[in-house]
Amino acid sequence: MESRSEQDQSGGPVRTPLPRLFAVFFRLGALSWGGGSTLSVMMMEEFIQRQSWMSFTQYASLAGISRISPGMNLVALTILVGLRQSGPAGVPVALLGLTLPSLLVIGVLCGLVRSAARSPMVLGAMQGVNGVVVGLLLAAGWRTLEELRREAPDRFVVCLAIVGVSLAASLLLAWGPVQVLLLAAGISMMPVWLRSRRDE
Predict the structure, then answer these.
(1) Residue 190 reports pLDDT greater than 90
(2) Distance, CA of 13 to CA of 7 (rounded, Å)
(3) What is the pLDDT of residue 131?
(4) Could you count the other beta carbons within 10 Å of the beta carbon of residue 6?
(5) Could you tell me the pLDDT band of residue 2, with boundaries at 50, 70 and 90?
(6) How deeply is 147 buried, as exposed, middle or buried, from its count of CB atoms within 10 A (0-12, 13-18, 19+)?
(7) Does 1 score more than 50 pLDDT?
(8) CA angle, 66 then 94 then 143, to 5°
(9) CA-CA distance, 53 to 193, in Å (whole number)?
């Protein structure tokens, strides 16, 4: 599906009204059952395809910045998107929209947690959720690779190499996230460095 970002006459993103920004993030927060993996897929589709706020390349840049920041990367991504679309006022509005549905649901369900946690049906359902999370993570990765192959084919091979090296470093060498991110950054910069050397 084609995704063209909205831009003003200066080439920057069109400012999103705060009520619309809140509504978009509130809907994401209300519908993203299943945790961060579900929300990651929904954010990518919402920002690129439904709202046309940005291209995949622009989204990938913001997502990359959010992943190297400490803390929850989807919160960082929400801050970056809110700032990009609506300026400084968009940051608290986006965060409130994203988190308010969870706060409301938790407030309603907190009294039922103690009794529900002992139910064999609830425990069985929670075990099934673990498989869903893995499937959604794989789906998010596949869609990201598909978008990258379509929009930036010159970087697709490098991205596949990073996927393989990251898996090997995590599973075989037991590296932590910071080490893997630094390794991936070095691999990503290598083609740019080689290209600059050839151009000299």
Answers:
(1) no
(2) 4
(3) 72
(4) 14
(5) very low
(6) buried
(7) no
(8) 50
(9) 31
